[in-house]
Amino acid sequence: MMFGTVQSGLSSIPNVFDLQQENNILRENNIRLSNENSNLREAKLENIRLTKLLQFKQASNLSLVSARIVNKSVVQMRNTITLNVGEADSVYVNMPVITADGLVGKIVSTSKNFSVAQILINKDMRVTVKVQRSRVDGILYYDGVSDLLVKNIPKNADVNSGDVLITSEYSNVYPPGIPVGIITETGNLDNLFKKVVVSPLIDFLNLENVFVLKYLSSQERYLLEKAFQKPGK
Q1: Is 66 left (phi over 0), alpha (psi -120 to 50) or beta?
Q2: Rounded to an integer, what distance in angstroms lies between the CA atom of residue 17 and that of residue 202?
Q3: Span 60-216: which CATH code?
Q4: Which of 28, 109, 148, 158 could be 198's S-S partner, Cβ–Cβ 3.0 to 4.6 Å?
Q5: Tally of CB atoms within 10 A around 109
Q6: Average pLDDT of the chain?
Q7: Verdict on whether the full-model pTM lies above 0.90
Q8: Smallest Cα–Cα separation from 94: which of 78, 116, 64?
């Protein structure tokens, strides 16, 4: 009688192994649903990014090549991105790289199907820019640590925080008028020039898709200016 009572009591206790198996199935289902939700969110975000790029390309009268970033280096002084387009797509050295927001950099190396671009936060980059509002000219460069700066801005120049910088017609690499950044800080560098700090318009850490602008500088202009700068000219 006692044995029957004990056995009856034990039968009312859930099987531990069955519970473990059920929990494992639930965990697997949760992981699967979580992955599906993540994929749906990623697809939605990619659709938003690509729609924005497509709208920009359709609205622009520029000759653009759509590209995806397949590798990037944004932790060194000489930061670069690798694109999935190259010479087979009519992409060549010195072509500008842009997005709908503004200037990213320029192509510095190409192969048949890939290309490498320097971005603005690269110690070797120089971009001739101008303040869109006041038309003051300067040269944008990266200090190799954290800031984009503009040099050759006179101390008394009409340059203020909040001013937008665009590429200048003095550039022999970039067409004029491409947005570059916003001035975030101004001060006196010395008795002659201002210190001008710039925030880029591009979020380089989260950048995934770009356009290569099919624009090459004038070889005639380059040769003329180079010849004129020779000694004796």
Answers
A1: beta
A2: 55
A3: 2.40.10.340
A4: 148
A5: 13
A6: 83
A7: no
A8: 116
